[in-house]
């Protein structure tokens, strides 16, 4: 079965927003074992939207449209799709009630007559509830065996709706369901990781294996086609086991939603440990990343941003001699920053980062991209030197991930 | 003239990467006054790529293809476009030399016979130099008056190539050149800002005015068509002046590249002031954002992440009474955090953030999304209360921008 994506919205054509929905849908569709050969974007224009839908239906079995379901006159996706499918729009009583309830809960005063437009649905369409907004999702079946799925544009609405209702629906359409597991790996480079599974990728049939490179991480999606989840799990198990044999404890999770920082916060919780941070070039981004994990308050009490040499001495107790002899960007300073931060915060573990993010401040001996990470865990300090080759933003992002990775390596050795 | 974008690459269809190039090109094309009604993405597949190019040429005057210019067999954009335009591929001596020189400079050992594929160009094509990689850009004119522009996929190659050579080329295609200025506004909501210029937008002809909503900011692009830059400037000047009359010092820059944090770092430098930060729910993101500005080290020495109540007392001197009486998430605590941070760091200004980012931790009195910002400037503290309605990530992003905005408001009053 082939699927095609149409993103609707003039804001995409004007470059006002980056189309992250297309990437999200594309990744999930691939994970469901469906083939997607075309993505397109059109504006809020009736004629061009109609052309785009007709073209998509002519070459694909299923068309997923995102956006254009809002309450304003500009929002045309439902109206135009209904026209293409030859369906009238009728009011859906359940959706109308839900919109009313939503407004009572969120901002009762702002309901306008426009909002009732969102309760209109193409006759015979399946309504998919939106738990995070007013526009319902819609599934339309055409007489020619073609299907259109209409989803709201806001990422915080489309993602939960897709996971909850659309993915299971797509699975039911296929002779066999498609199930997948995500195996997330850190502490290894992308090309090295891919080389290590080249034979598995060449030999793949069912399950299949696909690598996704993220900043400082590699995610492997294992996908199996089977009549039910249990059978799929049995098919995937040997592949996941094989990945564990090759990557060992470099695998930090096999859960789709778990991030590296969440895995680390969980590790700290398990070990009843706290962590702190002392940052120079990353200037708070490392702490900010740890605190992305909703439960971080259990393991993190305080942290330090020490940009100046003075602050490294004052807040962390880095010695003036070390700063003078080795410089602020050195393994020695990183080590003293980590130890000093743990001391000052009374934490069991500490990460420090000091480096030259760029664009200025580099020298022949210490070029832009040179970063030292210090990691204190229960009395021991480890330091690592990195040389990143990106711009300021990339160098700081990589420094954050590498620091987290070093901490994780130390924690799993305990 | 209508322009259409085709992004080439299976990694886009699989959702492996987010298509930021499309957003970049779309925004720049709109800024050049060109109309773009279609964006599409296709994989590294000869037949579908050919169909996509033919379809695009049938409905638009100019097609910009990005990606698929690499050295591997999968990279087909040049070959397929040449076929559609009926051109042979011939070796371009200058490009061959450039590739040789590039490899000598960057990684001389890795040059392979594949790389010479990148020196082949469609007969008669204009070669656009790539200063950041090996694949040249190409401009092909067809007999039917249609044009194709081929650009490399990596963002760090396509962006400078577009700015340096493609934007001027597109300008030359038009009877008049298109010039624009960006007027960036903060301290005001998007819908309010748009309402304030509704009449200007209705009346627009030359120059035109287009709003772009960013998190906590609104950017207005003023665009004029004129035979030269001087004439365009003269056309844009009254509009920019009008925007200054309406938004006053809410305009923080009229420079395309200047960010809010850079504008604030500049303000602090001008006033020879330093700043520090004390963060609870944003956990370092505010400091990290200030340090995005490459020159931040001149105004920022140290900062504090104070997640626990203990750390607020210990590092910032917030009184236990205040924490007990008003709670950690309160205007009173935010005020003491800001004053305490300025004291501890010996800084002239300080920003504090304390709030409930979610998803947990909210109550009826203090719901998720409630955030207090404290701003200390030369002895005076101002606090602001916000209620954000996004998820954890969005709430923290907005808290950071609002805090920066409050600091800027205080600084410009000095």
Folded structure, characterized:
Two copies of one chain form a homodimer. Chain A is of the alpha/beta class. Chain A folds into three domains: about 1-175, Molybdenum Cofactor Biosythetic Enzyme, Chain A (3-Layer(aba) Sandwich), CATH 3.40.980; about 175-255, Alpha-Beta Plaits (2-Layer Sandwich); about 260-414, Maf protein, CATH 3.90.950. In chain A, about 45% of the residues lie in helices and about 25% in strands. Chain A is built from 16 helices and 17 strands. Chain A has helices at about 10-15, 20-30, 45-60, 75-85, 95-105, 115, 155-175, 190-195, 200-205, 230-245, 260-270, 285-290, 310-315, 320-325, 330-345, 390-414; strands spanning about 1-10, 35-40, 60-65, 90, 120, 125-130, 135-140, 145-150, 175-185, 210-215, 215-225, 250-255, 275-280, 300-305, 350-355, 370-375, 380-385. In chain A, strands 2-1-3-8-7-6 form a six-stranded mixed sheet, with helices on both faces. The longest helix of chain A has 22 residues, at about 390-414. Chain A is elongated. Chains A and B meet through helix 2, strand 2, helix 3, strand 10 and helix 12 of A and helix 2, strand 2, helix 3, strand 10 and helix 12 of B. Strand 2 (about 35-40) of chain A pairs antiparallel with strand 2 (about 35-40) of chain B, so a sheet runs across the interface.
Keywords, please?
homodimer; Maf protein; Alpha-Beta Plaits; Molybdenum Cofactor Biosythetic Enzyme, Chain A; 43% helix; 3 domains; 6-stranded mixed beta sheet; elongated; alpha/beta
Topology:
2 copies of one chain form a homodimer.
Chain A: E1 2-8, H1 10-13, H2 20-31, E2 35-42, H3 46-59, E3 62-66, H4 77-85, E4 89-91, H5 93-106, H6 113-116, E5 120-122, E6 126-128, E7 137-141, E8 147-151, H7 155-173, E9 177-185, H8 190-196, H9 198-203, E10 208-214, E11 217-226, H10 229-247, E12 251-253, H11 260-270, E13 275-279, H12 285-290, E14 302-306, H13 309-316, H14 320-326, H15 331-345, E15 349-355, E16 370-377, E17 380-387, H16 392-413
Parallel strand pairs in A: 1-2, 1-3, 3-8, 13-14, 13-15
Antiparallel strand pairs in A: 4-5, 6-7, 7-8, 9-11, 9-12, 10-11, 15-16, 16-17
